[in-house]
Write a structure and sequence with these properties.
Length: about 250
């Protein structure tokens, strides 16, 4: 199955440590900064940093003191890893109606925002909704409509020292996803790998790089352990905030 991936979220308890870990992996990060989810809960509870690629990104987020009604509260205390899967859409209201027709239970659409500390320094704005009940164990699943994509996806923050250019696939122990999550056109592959642990549900990522040589050098210089399979570099979940990373040369 392919999914219309917008971003994946690593959830942890210490945003500073999370940023440091991904910086050592060779990524340029934006933030951290507070994210107002637009749900009426504490607007400073969630701190997020981002690894930006063309049209999608990885989010590092922490909300250790969030109130009980915060959308991340059900996932606080779970083991580290990818706990947010957010798919893209052109119209959040229309997509919500489509999702509801598949039998899933979407929340209301929320208006979210965060102040960007790069590019034109704009206020990034989004419309998003999640599912009232989990359809993927231990994972918040949602959809987002970008209202300011030109500001968020600034090419100047996509130049990563490790030369990684994007996400080719998400890796799951069990590949069966609800049909409502399938991309209607194109999208990112969701692949099964039975060697991954049961939890988190999304246990790994396949990433594309312009230069494996450059990536090797960055990881070595930053003393990050990795396995070199020649055409693929592998970083264990323990060294990458709970998700195995597999980096391959872009063809």
């Amino acid at each position: 199955m392919n999914i219309a991936l917008d971003h994946l979220g690593f959830l942890g308890s210490d945003i500073g440590r999370m940023v440091d870990t991904f910086s050592k992996l060779g990524f340029q990060l934006t933030g951290p900064a507070p994210l107002d989810p637009g749900t009426g809960t504490d607007v400073t509870a969630q701190q997020s940093a981002h690894v930006i690629f063309p049209g999608r990104y990885i989010e590092l987020t922490a909300a250790p003191d969030c109130p009980a009604d915060h959308h991340l509260a059900p996932f606080i205390g779970l083991s580290p890893g990818i706990r947010l899967l957010v798919l893209g859409c052109a119209d959040a209201d229309q997509e919500r109606r489509r999702i509801r027709a598949t039998g899933l239970e979407p929340s209301p659409v929320h208006e979210a925002s965060r102040q960007l500390a790069y590019g034109d320094g704009a206020m990034a704005r989004f419309r998003w909704f999640g599912l009232q009940r989990e359809c993927l164990p231990g994972t918040l699943t949602g959809w987002v409509q970008h209202l300011t994509p030109g500001s968020v996806f600034d090419p100047r923050v996509m130049r990563h020292p490790n030369s990684v250019t994007g996400i080719d696939a998400v890796l799951l122990r069990r590949a069966r996803l609800p049909e409502g999550l399938a991309a209607t056109d194109g999208g990112t592959a969701a692949r099964q790998d039975e060697n991954l642990p049961e939890d988190p549900f999304i246990g790994g990522l396949e990433l594309a790089a312009e230069s494996l040589e450059r990536c090797r050098a960055v990881l070595t210089n930053n003393q990050v352990a990795f396995s070199d399979l020649g055409n693929e570099l592998q970083i264990t979940a323990g060294d990458a905030l709970g998700a195995e990373l597999r980096i391959r040369q872009r063809a």
